[in-house]
Amino acid sequence: MSVHRRVQWRRDPDGTAYRTRRSFPAAPARSTVLLAGPGTVSVLDGDGRDDRLLARLTDRLVASGAQVLDCDMPARDPKSPVSEEDVRARADRLEQLVEGNQHLTRGPLTLVGFSLGGQALLRLLGSGAPRQADRVVLVGTVVDEDVFLASRVPSVELVYGSNDLVGYLVDDSDPSQKPAVFDPGVYGDWSARHVIGTPTPAVRVHVLDGLGHTLHPCGPGPSRDPLPALTSLVGVGP
After folding, report:
1. What pTM does this model have?
2. Is the N-terminal amide bond of 130 cis, ω within 30° of 0?
3. Other CB atoms within 10 Å distance of the CB of residue 56
4. 132 - beta bridge partners?
5. Are 207 and 226 in contact (CB under 8 A)?
6. Cβ atoms of 63 and 1 closer than 8 Å
7. Residue 169 dihedral angles phi and psi, to the nearest 5°
8. Whole-number Å distance between alpha carbons of 207 and 218
């Protein structure tokens, strides 16, 4: 399988330079996938664990006949809490990525976001850009409050690793308080109820056994390669 790649330089409004990339098959692409990585991934040529998963996913999607769009993201300290500015900066670059490749979009458009990338996609869709997406796949993205999708999106797939536990403090002023911990069987359902739009999208929750926040093996028990499931949810091939 041959994967062709084209990289272009763009600039943020403040002048910061970054790269966009289009990965595509030799034959005409049958669909387009916009890929937004988690907060640990900031550059296209990173070599961390999450970077390698995104690279494998890109190759799998291209082998299934899709072209994949992604870009450098603003670097951030993964040990610090996610800020509204982190989400906004990523959403702005993703919007430019969509607009800059409109003339190259082929077939159904699917948006795939991991963790912070998923939050950025929700912000983007809340603004109505792009006007329509055929499918949205959000990995490890917890939706705490109602999000109205101004873009027309018929289906949203929420994907979580079974060992991705989320803790909440009932009272932030009490440092001795132990957090209430929930598994994706609980917070996945409430996340699904918070995703709304007109018309209302079909929101489905998928829990992959033995995997953690960004779908790497985590905890005891059997685990599985997440790529076949992800590729199927994106809808571009087996």
Report:
1. 0.94
2. yes
3. 14
4. 152
5. no
6. yes
7. -95, 130
8. 13
pLDDT in tens, the chain (238 residues): 689 999 999 999 999 999 999 999 999 999 999 999 999 999 999 999 999 999 999 999 999 999 999 999 998 887 788 899 999 999 999 999 999 999 888 899 999 999 999 999 999 999 999 999 999 999 999 999 999 999 999 999 999 999 999 887 666 666 677 778 889 999 999 999 999 998 899 999 999 999 999 999 987 777 789 999 999 999 875 4
SS3 track for the chain: CCCEEEEEEEECCCCCEEEEEEEECCCCCCEEEEEECCCCCCCCCCCCHHHHHHHHHHHHHHHCCEEEEEECCCCCCCCCCCCHHHHHHHHHHHHHHHHHCHHHCCCCEEEEEECHHHHHHHHHHHCCCCCECCEEEEECCCCCCCEEECCECCEEEEEEECCCCEEECCCCCCCCCCCEEECHHHHHHHHHHHEEECCCCEEEEEEECCECCCCCECCCCCCCCCHHHHHHHHCCCC
Name the token pair of 125: 């869709």
As to burial, measured by CB atoms within 10 angstroms (0-12 exposed, 13-18 middle, 19+ buried), residue 234 is buried
CA 46 to CA 55: how far, in whole Å? 10
Query: Number of C-alpha atoms within 13 angstroms, CB side, residue 233?
Result: 25
Say which amino acid occupies 15. G
